[in-house]
Model the fold of this input.
Amino acid sequence: MGDRADACAMLTGVETRSVSPVFVGRADELTALTDALARAHAGEPQALLIGGEAGVGKTRLIEEFVDAACARDAFVALGGCVEIGADGLPFAPFSAALRSLRRRLPGELAAAADGQEGELARLLPELGDIGSHEPYNEDSTARLFELTVRLLERLAADRTIVLVLEDLHWADASTRHLLAYLFRTLRRGRIVVVASYRADDIHRRHPLRPLLAELDRLRSIRRIELPRFTRTEVRRQLTGILAAEPDAALVDQIFDRSDGNAFFVEELVVSREAGCVSPALSDSLRDLLLVRVEALPDDAQRVARIVAEGGSTVEYALLAAVSRLAEDDLIEALRAAVGANILLAVPDGDGYRFRHSLVREAVSDDLLPGERSRLNRRYAEALEADPALVRADERATRLASYWYKAHDAARALPAVLRAAVATRERCAYAEQLRLLERAMELWDDVPDDVRSSLRPMDYAEAYPPCGCDPETTPLRYLDLLAEAAVAARLCGERERALKIVKMAMRLLGGEDGGDRDPLREAWFWTERSRIMSGLGRSDGWAEIATAQELVKGLPPSAVHAAVLTVAAGWGMLHQPGPESLASAERAVEYARLVRAEPIELGARLTLGSLMVAAGDPEGGLAAMYEVRDRTAALGLLHESARAHVNLASSLEALGRSREALEVAEAGLTMARSRGLLDSQGWIRANLAESQFSLGLWDETQRAGEWLEYAGQGARPRGSAALRLAQLAVARGELATAAAQLAVARQCYGTQDPMPQYTLPMSEIELLLAAAAGRIADVRAELAGAAERGFPPGTQRYGWPLVLAAVTAEADARGLPAAAEGRPEALALIRRCVRSLATAAPVWQAYSLHVSAELGRAEDRMSAERWAETVTAYEAVERPYQLAVARQRLADALLAEGGRREEAAALLRESHATAVALGARPLREDVELLAARGRLSLTAPDAAPAAGTDEDTFGLTPREHGVLRLVAAGRTNRQIAEELFISPKTASVHVSNILAKLGVSGRGEAAALAHRLRLLES
Done:
């Protein structure tokens, strides 16, 4: 290492001339960057994108900004995307930037990464060994991204950091995804993130294009587009380069030929000064860029060609091994190339790169086909002979790229497979997929003896234990397909994953007549189920059923256990019952037999949830607590987070919301500390449900808004929308509720209905219909839900739905529009009640509540029944439902006569709860009832003045008569005929009534009159 640094240090004093010492133009752009630096220094993170064509001056602008940042004591970390990223070198710019920060802030970075070194080593291997022991899943990448953002936020907590990521047009998919995540979630710290890209490379199908479109929608990101120089700016640039004022003819000539491109201006001037440009020279870009390279000595040209093919940067020792020049000759060649400003020594003194990528591309394109293959072979041979020539995190991918470009399939295939394993270990699934697809491309070109010597180096989840010994069984093409299918699913390319799975199925036993292999077929069918569900094309059950048929009767295996676990999990979410319970029990048994503990723990967790739904709450909860503790001990983070999710959900299903809240908060703490953002979404969704039940509505609002913003998947965002809609209905914000319900429906889709989503959506739809007086729609919604059924364990969703329906019927009692179909509607409600379990105290309270509302709907108001309901709710933490029951009990007491003080006390308690929750409809109902009963809501001993008309809302006797006819469904003309008044007078009376009652329509007036019994004698 010391020799390499010394060799590079020898060239640091070489004189170069082509860069203008004067920074030309870009005043507005530089001001935007320095303003962002000032805002970041004040604690407001900043993100900027700099775009422009190749050579327009992006790097020079960034250099000026970096100088300004350093002058203000900011810590600058630079990272550039490397072109080899297309071959699977993931996170290259982030790794380089973090490496830079580690050199400058070693102690601070170590403290910021404390406890997460194993995960962050995927980006920065110098932090230690990669430490996760769990199977890779969709959460792995999100966890890495979250920890990376948190690391940067901690570093920038008390110092200003400038993170510069250049050449995004070469970025690998993992880098693009991490950058998008960083831009979306960075909310704290004194940090500026600047990213640049070559705009003229971003064609319609360029992979960066969707990211740019996504970032355009983020208000927190500023885009800076660099135009070409004007003629005046070109003249100033020439003045800086020549150190003298150029004549007008030269300015015109250079401006016309460069078209204002700053780099072309420099190349034209330097070539002209060196006598390399003649009037007859072609204007083609390639000729312009090659002319100065071809003026170098032969050895320097040779070195330039070697560097051009080695990648964005080539280490000195690797360059020496490939060039095979004597050290003195190599140094002289490098001195000539650096002196001509063709090559530059990289900042860390360990290698060389082209000053501008355009020159490197021109030199590389000028290589002959055989010459290119030969150079790549030399690179590969040198790297195999001495792996220490490059960094360990780059070694596998670069070796795979060199052998592939050397057109040596036999040497390339093993290297590509090793690189695929390395990228998978870094959670760079998109790059893993591309490498596996390259292996699939090479497969048929590799001799049989080489293929037979290959062994599976990585496994796709439960795929490998199919009765094969990996030590003796050769790698099969199907193994590549299995790995590629999982990689495609994990990186979000589900369409590609589906194509790969279908290809595997054809090979296994269909169209291509392959040998049947039921275990592998079952595995691929299970994988297909996940993909189809993820694509929103089906609920995945048909595929799971096929997999179950394939493993039926086979000896226990990990694949068999995994299939049963997936089937049980599907049943838990869609159709919990005896069959799902039996699948979960067999999955646990089979996983134990084959000692597949991760699968066993997943199956036990599902089994615990199903036991709770089946009526064994204590046994089920105990099983889930055991899984939570065991997964935490084994470091199975994803399964541990899932245990917190399922535990909180099961406790909420039992009405034990306080315990559910505690479990969810503990899970949230764990998920935050380990960067499990996706799991945070699921846990927060359960947390919000328990908070709503406990009357913590402001906390529910905050949790829902967090999920709206940061939820990783559609379903957690759908849960957020559901909870916010539920909250909005209870607070009387009906337009907001309808909008959130629409969001929830969009998030959940229509192809994979689950009771935990469909029943709450039906409840909200029903509540909205009831609020609008659409009783027919209320009945239709309940009928649809009843037809779908209430599977075991869904009483937490069924009881609120049935309660909303019977409340709507009770409120509509006496309305003509509600009369038709009313007996059938009440009969349906009773059938629904009989199908819902009441095993937990909270659902017993709901059952009493529904029964009491049925009495109100049938004009059998019973204070005794409402008293029972209040008592039941007092034993469980359901403040909103308790407040409603107290209001109903007060109403019943007033109707029966006497017990006014008791009614007043109940109304005051109900009113206090409604005010605290912000439940406007309930508050108004309480206030209206108190007014009608002439009861004080503030002073227990105060009595309203005698003779007030609060109980009649100030309605005159004539208006009482009109209100009766409005409630009976009469039109203004019919009212006029019956009361012997004019239609205009009738209209005036109706308007006055609506104003006094504080309602917006005749239907609401009628409903309120019936509910408050304003029409009684």
Residues 138-155 form the longest helix (18 residues).
